[in-house]
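It would be a great kindness if you could assist me with a short task in structural biology. The full record is reproduced below for your convenience:
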Amino acid sequence: MQASLVHMIVACDAGSRQVRTSGTPRALLDAVLVRLCLVESFASAAGLLSGQPGKKAPARAR
């Protein structure tokens, strides 16, 4: 859980720096929001290095 929060903070920080100089800030904001929504489906780096990749998020019914 803590790694997810750190990833979210890093994504927001990187996005805010890029928005200031971008000609398309809305597209960058949309991309950051997508990354925040999908953060649980990313595999953990520690799990990949140990040879045991993290479980993917379960598929949601539409």
In short: Residues 2-21 form the longest helix (20 residues).
